[in-house]
Every structure is written in C-alpha cells, then in structure tokens.
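INTERNAL AUDIT FORM
Audit reference: QA-55
Scope: verify that the stored structure record matches its stored sequence.
Auditor: D.O.
Record contents follow.
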Amino acid sequence: MPSLLKFSSLLVMYALVASHCWAQTPFPLKTIKLVVPFPAGGGTDAVARIVTQKMSETFNESIIVENKIGAGGSVATEYVAHAEPDGYTLLFTTSGHAIQPNLQKLNWDPIKDFAPISTLVKNPLVLAVRPDFKASNVKELVKMAKDNPGKFTYGSSGPGSALNLSAEYFKSVAKVDIVHIPYSGNGPMTLALLKGEVDMVFDSLTGPLPNIHAGKLRALAVTTLKRSFALPDTTTLDEAGLKGYDFSSWSGVLAPAGTPQDIVQKLNRQIASALDTPSVREKLMNFGYTPMSSSSQELQDTIVQDLASYKRMIKDLNISAN
C-alpha cells in the first residue's frame, strides 16, 4: 500500500508540473507590433525604436513600430484596446494615457482595457524658443506675455497631451495668456517652432535637444524641480521664479486586457533587459530620457495615481479637449 500511495503521489506531482509547462504560452512565434500614437520623428517614436531594436535581437523575432496618429493618441489607444490579447499588438503610451480620460468620453478605459507591462523612460519637459525670440529668460518671457496678452503662441502634440497640460499649467502659475496651437505630434510641432509658426513649445527633450545643441533653438527652462542631466546649465521653472512648478512625463508599454500573464511577464523581462543594456541607456540618455523599467503593478499604480492627480489639475486649470 505505501508503494502504491507513493506512486500515486508521483503521478499527481507529474501532472501538476506537466500542466504548468503546458500552460506556458510559446511566445513570440511571429512579429510583434508596437503601436505608437504619434508620427515618426518625435520623442515617443525615438524611444520606441531604440528599445524595440534591442528587444528584437534577444527575442529572435522582429518587433516593428507602427505609427497610428490621431485624436491626441486616442486612435492608437482604442486600436490596441480592441486588439487580440495575445501579446503581438502592444501600445507605446505616455502620461497622456491618464490625461485624456479626464477630458472626454472615450471608447477605451485606461485601466480595464489594458494589461500594463512596464515603464520605459521618465523625463522633464523643456520650454524652448527660437534663438531670435526676444525673451532671453523666463522672467522676460512672462513680462512680454503679460504686456501682450494673446499675442504669443505655443505648440503642443494635441489637446489633452502632457505637453498641452504642462503649458496650461505654466500659464496658470505665471498668470499669462498664450494661445495654444495643436499639432499631430512632437515632430510636426518641433518643425513648426523651427519655421516660426509658433513662438514656443513645452516638449520632451528628444525633439528640441539636437536643435538646442546646434543653436537652432534655445532652452529657457526645464519643468522639473531638479535640473536635467542633459541640460545642466538650464534653469528650472521653479528656480526662474515660478515657485513649485513641477511637471514630468513618462512613457511605457501596455497590452490589451486579457493578455496571458506569462506573456506580460516575458515582455516585462525583455524590456528591463533592453533598458539595462549600456548602448540602449546611452542612446536614450543622449535624447534626455532617464531609462526606468518597472513592474507591471508599478505601472498600473502610476496610471491610477496620475488619473486622480490630472483630474484635479484639469479641473483647476479649466482645460478642455477642444
């Protein structure tokens, strides 16, 4: 009898191990698509391509970037929300994921429709102008704007974007009237600034940084309380007199809700591995980003917290999606 019990126990253990192994979804078996909500050439696109290139090498399967623009990122977000939850269609998102639901009714839910995978980077924004702009610092800009309400313009990557919100926050703290001109993404917005279509932008560092180093744009300030390692000589808005001004952005990757947890974890590990690669870190930091992976739960917590904080900010600033 003892030997029979022992044999039965072994059979149960084998079945449990086998079922666990069979439950692991083979992944990836084909090309993965990372959907980016903005045009090529902007900050989000650059981060996506740097990281996916490295992930493609370790996965031995291609990861392609698909730019799907429109509605401040909502077109791409809705597309991924309704995609097959198999890990082959992913969303590269930004802080705007927690902003837009506070501005309008959408065909996707920021929490229920997605499985968070990992953050990729965090970064300050930079207030940039052309070299011929008359204000040489933030104090002069604020005075000019107060003396000429409604005369100056700023570009953003669309209503409800982090860039839009940071600029409106600036207007509120500085008590100035500057007109918002929306574009379809960071790239077109940066081009508009260079061509003189707008007077200034609040942007992630990727677009303006090369132009700042080349002398084609001038950085007046960064938006975080701490100076950026990429622009160590550039003051913060807090240092420039707008006390307490603090605004940063993040980028991350989401999958459709219902994606198997083992696939989510595999993608999470691959992202962390890519971000730990010295060459990847160097490229991202050259663009002004701080590489920063997270657990799936940490990204989920960030989105939940941002939804609440942006709700308060949007209400206080009386911001609309139009």
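Auditor finding: record pair retrieved intact. The first helix runs from residue 2 to 23.
Action required: none
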